[in-house]
Amino acid sequence: MMRYVIIPVVVLIAIVSAGLSQAGYRETFEREFMLSPWSIAKGETSACIQCHTSDNMGPEMHEVTRQWKESWHAKNNISCHDCHGGAPEDASMSMMHQRGFKGSPKDVDIPEFCGTCHIAILDNYLKSGHGETFIATAEGPSCVTCHGSHNIQQASMDIINEQLCSQCHTYERAKEMKQALFMVESKLNTIDKDMKRLKLLGIATERQEKAFFRNHAEFRALFHSIDVDAVRIKSSDYAQKLEIIESEINDSFNKLAMRRNVSAYLFLLFIGLSIVVFLLSKSYEQQ
Question: pLDDT for 86-106, tens place per residue?
Answer without folding.
Answer: 999 988 888 998 889 998 999
